[in-house]
Structure formats: structure tokens, C-alpha cells
Amino acid sequence: QLQLVESGGGLVQPGGSLRLSCAASGFTSDYYAIGWFRQTPGKEREGVSCISSSGSTTIYADSVKGRFTISRDNAKNTVYLQINSLKPEDTAVYYCAADRVVNPWYPGRLSAHEYDYWGQGTQVTVSS
Question: Which residues partner with 43 through β-bridges?
């Protein structure tokens, strides 16, 4: 059973930066694309970025392009989300999720229902 654990959230001032981590365990020999999502109360979960199993292909939501960078270290089974120039509207619970795929270069999609496994989330609050 694949398990995902997010960390790195916190309270940060506008304009600041955070690096979120998603540590995975229980991997099999399958390929997994990893996505980052965020959610605020009363709203649907929003996909912000995803990355292929190989790490070579990434996708970003328009709302975060240029500020968010997704990367992965397969030796550590960890995916990162570097968030720069944080804005109050970035405040949300951030989740990582895994989508089992057959193509290691397929990055997945920014659609929550595509993903099979989810972490518990980490809170990011942007406030002065």
C-alpha cells in the first residue's frame, strides 16, 4: 500500500517562500506520477502541479506558473514543491497524490479524480 506524507507547511508572510515535501513509502515496481493539490474550506480541491515518474515532465496550473516548482528525488522517494512569492490567496491545505501510470514520462493531470493515493495534507498560511 502506497503511503504519502506531506511536510513543510507553515505560516509565512506575503512574498515569502516554502518548500513542501511529499515522502512516499510502499512503492512497488510500478510508475507513479505525483500531483500537488490545494484546498480551502468550501472549495473544490485544485490541482497546482504534477510530475512524471521520471521527473522529466511537469505541468503547472496557470495560477502558479513562475512561482511554483515541482521536482522529485526518486532515490529518496520524495517529491518537492517549491513555492516562491507567496500570496494570501495561496493559503490552503496542500496535498500530494499519486497516480499509478504505465508511462514513466506521463506527468499526470491536474484532476483530483485521476489519483489513487493521497497524503493527509499540510497547511500553508500566508499572512502578515
Answer: none
Q: Which amino acid is at 103?
A: N
CB 95 within 8 A of CB 6: yes
Helix-, strand-, coil-residue percentages of the chain, each rounded to 5: 5, 50, 45
One-letter amino acid of 106: Y
Start-end of H helices in 3-119: none
Amino acid found at 109: R
Q: What does the pLDDT profile of the chain (128 residues) look like in tens digits?
A: 899 999 999 999 999 999 999 999 987 778 999 999 999 999 999 999 999 999 999 999 999 999 999 999 999 999 999 999 999 999 999 999 999 999 999 999 999 999 999 999 999 999 99
CA proximity to 41, closest of 111, 83, 91, 88: 91
Q: How many CB atoms neighbour CB 66 within 10 A? A: 9
Report the DSSP beta bridge partners of residue 120.
Answer: none
